[in-house]
Amino acid sequence: MPASSDTNFGDLPPSLAAERRGAIAILRLSRPEKRNALDDGTVLGIESFFTRLPEGIKAVVVHGQGEHFSAGLDLSELTERDTAQGVEHSRMWHRAFQQIEFGKVPVVAVLHGAVVGGGLELAAAAHIRVAEKSAYYALPEGSRGIYVGGGASVRLPKLIGVSRMQDMMLTGHSYSADEGLAIGLSHYVVDVGAGLAKGIELAERIAQNAPLTNFAVMHVLPRIAESDPASGYLAESLMAAIAQGSDEAKARLKDFLEKRGTKVLRG
């Protein structure tokens, strides 16, 4: 489906651009001259975009313009902050990226070139990550005398483990696209230039799911995974009952039993 402009995305900063393709929204990081480094305006724009998604949007694709997804925090914006100001700055990033991880719809991140520092933190907040073969991952904060502040301490150990994250920060070790796939930084690797098409394909597939199921996968599954087993089993049984009791679920199950339902897709 061709892209269309949509004024319902609100006022975005020049560093971001958005378009709509049916039930899919596409958000583009648009600071190629800065390798899509994330300044405060961009992060606040990301928060605004995901908070104000128009009606009918069922999945989002995030990608970067130019040769890189994002080289991370815009270091030119760093000023001397006292401790309280530093905490508030980090929490601003947390609020923005929580609108991705625990927002309204599933998010697919398309990665290429630098996926570094805050760029990796942004990618880790997405639910599905597609990497082009040019992608590489790094956390250079250690060599710059700073520490991650966009949620990496919480999200990345769940993906790759504490030990690998320590190695990335202490030694500057980076991972290629294929290595990132092997350790859990991405779900798919595709040829250079093929990432956006793959991301849109996956988002369109996601958008066909029942909204309640997508909600459960986004909001309930992560919390079950972090709970004790007894609480997890209880939450799962409640969510399963809520989902299967909906009119949409009953209609979809009827279609499946009568050979009209969607078949399992490979790849």
Please, could you describe this protein's structure?
The structure is a single chain. The chain is α/β, with parallel strands linked by helices. It folds into two domains: 7-207, 2-enoyl-CoA Hydratase, Chain A, domain 1, CATH 3.90.226; 211-257, Lyase 2-enoyl-coa Hydratase, Chain  A, domain 2 (Orthogonal Bundle), CATH 1.10.12.10. It has ten helices and nine strands. The protein has helices spanning 40-51, 83-101, 118-125, 152-160, 162-171, 177-183, 195-207, 211-226, 229-244, 247-257, and strands spanning 16-21, 24-29, 59-64, 107-111, 114-116, 128-132, 136-138, 175-176, 188-190. Strands 1-2-3-4-6-9 form a six-stranded mixed β-sheet, sandwiched between helices. A three-stranded mixed β-sheet has the order 5-7-8. Strand 2, helix 1 and strand 3 (59-64) form a beta-alpha-beta unit. The chain is globular and about 60 Å long.
Query: Strand percentage, roughly?
Result: 5-15%
* Strand segment tally: 9
Shape: globular
- Tell me the structural class: alpha/beta
> What is the CATH architecture assignment of the largest domain?
Alpha-Beta Complex
CATH superfamily of the largest domain: 2-enoyl-CoA Hydratase, Chain A, domain 1
Offer a quick outline of the entry.
The protein is an alpha/beta fold.
